[in-house]
Design goal:
With 126 residues, the chain is mainly α. The chain has six helices and no strands. The protein has one domain.
């Protein structure tokens, strides 16, 4: 069972990963990338929806992490997924997935060929 101190330690590591990213501030590039990904119905497979994920900035993602970390237990989705985990574990799982996909999104915005190859393989060539 995840203790609160361990949760906040791991949360800090995830927040530091977001802060360290070199994301684009180019609104046109962000919009172009988001529009292209929307054509594939691309989005992170998370428990709670993330408002306008494809257009999120680092600052918005950090706010979303804080929001989820501070959610009351009764607002966590899907009681079936919660039966074997405490609320801190669920929150950390959700935030970890969200951070993974945000890092991928930043790579896509930066035009990293391998990131686009993965998207093409999963969404185009299937």
């Amino acid at each position: 069972m995840l203790e609160q101190s361990e949760f906040f330690e791991k949360l800090g590591v995830l927040q530091d990963e977001i802060k360290a990213l070199k994301d684009s501030n180019d609104k046109a590039l962000i919009e172009e990338t988001a529009s292209r990904l929307e054509g594939f119905n691309y989005g992170p497979p998370v428990l709670l929806p993330v408002a306008d994920f494809l257009r999120c900035s680092k600052e918005q993602m950090l706010l979303e992490i804080d929001r989820i970390a501070n959610l009351p237990d009764d607002e966590l989705v899907d009681a079936d997924s919660a039966k074997d985990k405490n609320s801190l574990e669920l929150k950390l799982q959700h935030i970890s997935i969200m951070v993974f996909y945000f890092k991928e999104l930043v790579e896509l915005r930066c035009g990293v060929p391998e990131a686009w190859d993965e998207v093409d393989e999963l969404y185009v060539h299937d």
